[in-house]
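Below is one such record:
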Amino acid sequence: MWKNQPEKEPAAAPPRPVAPTPTVTAPTITAPPPTAAPRGAERPTHIGKTMSLKGTITGGEDLYIDGKLEGTVDLPKNSVTIGLNGQVQADITAHEVIIQGKLGGNVTASDRVEIRAQGALTGDVTCARISIEDGAFFKGGIDIQKSSSSKVASVG
């Protein structure tokens, strides 16, 4: 009936000729020397629409606010953008301020303030330049200051 037969090993395939593998050298990548990035070259710090903060924000980076913020923002050399979903109750000091959402508070900008068509600002503005698009809401006072770069030195 059943006979125990030793298993036959399959015949080994003849060895394939091995082609020489080409030598590949990775290109040398050298990073450029670190330099000071121009203003705005980095991505801004982002406060997302589900975030809610209370307090004082200071620093040296641009800021994009799409959530809720209550307090003060002090970024005199950077820009602050309030996104479409942003709801801010704060006094803001920055180089430039762009408002697409809602801001209740005073704004001091060394350069410009821009209120986009969807934006709303209730508070006083002190800046060198201001732009208010059609459809934007603004309630407050405006104080236009000459920018420091436009001052002429007097010879005495």
